[in-house]
Write a structure and sequence with these properties.
Strand content: under 5%
Radius of gyration: 20 Å
Oligomer: single chain
Helix content: 55-70%
Number of strands: 0
Shape: flat
Order of helices and strands: HHHHHH
Largest sheet: none
Structural class: mainly alpha
């Protein structure tokens, strides 16, 4: 046991940590790779949305940033490779306008994969899918895309945090023994 880890209580779980933070990295620090990867993923997707036939450089720069962002995220190699390959395809699909925000469900699944979330947390993909059907009802033209993407990203982030909570609760339930260390007092006992 190293000095930086808190001692685990014999009757309950230790402090929960992100599964990807436990992976030994060959280069860089976890926080740096996570934050820079996230910044590149978001900025790459945003840059791609600014691209069109007259601004092709935004598309190229966005794809490069997106691929690098997914590639440096702390995760197992095959998960990063899968995300780096598939995410640009779905980001390009967003260029068709608000009617394609449903495609954000695929990068969301890639996010869950890269973050090593348990299968039970994948139920949260229903929120980005529902968002993909609701948002196009209000935004039909491409000029509504910035607001449609903003709403979709709020749903995406909220779903990701819910998936994290589900993963954390599942890990806590798996580590907690059936018998508590101290007898509990109920109103009847008082």
């Amino acid at each position: 046991m190293s000095g930086s880890e808190p001692p685990a209580a014999p009757w309950g779980p230790a402090v929960w940590r992100e599964p990807t933070s436990l992976i030994p990295l060959k280069w860089g620090r976890y926080t740096d790779r996570y934050l820079w990867g996230l910044i590149l993923i978001i900025s790459g997707t945003t840059a791609m949305q600014a691209g069109n036939i007259y601004a092709v450089s935004f598309l190229g720069q966005g794809i490069v940033a997106l691929v690098i962002g997914w590639s440096i995220m702390p995760a197992r190699g095959w998960r990063r490779t899968l995300a780096a390959f598939l995410a640009p395809l779905f980001a390009v699909a967003l260029l068709t306008g608000p009617q394609s925000v449903w495609t954000l469900a695929a990068p969301y699944l890639l996010w869950l994969c890269v973050r090593h979330r348990p299968l039970r947390s994948y139920i949260t993909v229903l929120f980005p899918i529902a968002n993909g059907f609701i948002v196009p009802q209000f935004f039909e033209e491409y000029d509504g895309m910035p607001l449609a993407l903003a709403i979709s990203m709020v749903v995406f982030v909220a779903s990701a945090w819910l998936a994290r909570l589900i993963a954390r609760q599942g890990a806590a339930a798996a580590e907690t023994p059936n018998d508590p260390p101290f007898p509990s007092k109920t109103p009847v006992d008082l």
